[in-house]
Amino acid sequence: MNNYNKILASLKAAPVNKGAAKAVYFIGIGGIGMSALARYFNSNGVKVNGYDKTPTPLTSQLQAEGINVHFEDDVTLVDKNAQLVIYTPAIPAGHEELNYYKRNGYTVVKRSDVLGAITENSFNIGVAGTHGKTTTSTMVAHILQHTGYGCTAFLGGIAANYDSNYLSSNNDVCVIEADEYDRSF
Questions:
Q1: Strands 164-167 and 47-51
Q2: Fewer Cβ atoms within 10 A, N terminus or C terminus of the chain?
Q3: Which domain holds residue 29?
Q4: Across the chain, where does the E strand assignment appear?
Q5: Domain boundary among 64, 97, 117
């Protein structure tokens, strides 16, 4: 089994804090889907670091939550102890940090693959469509949270009620947006 499959199998088999990666690096951490995953790992006690092109209110929130984020494509700033590197397909092929990790044998996976591994063994409510995915998934997640049933949600926007795009619960139910971008549906 190659390293990529080992990490995905580890994510599928156990919660992150029980044996999977201890340090994760995100390339494009400021994206709405990437930041939700970063919050997931961070909330499970995993060391999270990342790069994004531009500082935004969302990257400031991540930094306030204890996640180290930098804004220069500079290999001297990457986490060389990362066991898993997650990138968004929006990152250009010539990105220095992405190529550094690939050249040096790190496990480098797309965001959609990691989200799939995390949610593979849970009951999932996937919201698809052309318009309204974020609104609908946020409403479903809010209903589940507000009723006390609970869910883990990876939202495509910041939910005003929670000031976050990630909600957590011990219940084995996930609300996700089923997105077709980059053939990741």
A1: unpaired
A2: N
A3: 3-117
A4: 23-27, 47-51, 68-70, 84-87, 108-110, 123-127, 152-159, 164-167, 173-177
A5: 117
183 Ramachandran zone, left/alpha/beta (phi>0; psi -120 to 50): left
pTM for this one? 0.89
Q: How many domains does the chain have?
A: 2
Does residue 152 share a domain with residue 93? no
Same domain, 10 and 94: yes
**Tokens 């102890």, residue located:** 81
pLDDT tens, N- to C-terminus, the chain (185 residues): 455 566 666 555 444 444 567 899 999 999 999 999 999 999 999 999 999 999 999 999 999 999 999 999 999 999 999 999 999 999 999 999 999 999 999 999 999 889 988 998 899 999 998 899 999 999 999 999 999 999 999 999 999 999 999 999 999 999 999 866 555 44
Of 117, 147, 173, which one is at a domain's C-terminal end?
117
The sign of the dihedral angle between the CA atoms of 80, 82, 85, 86 is negative
Query: Do 109 and 166 belong to one domain?
Result: no
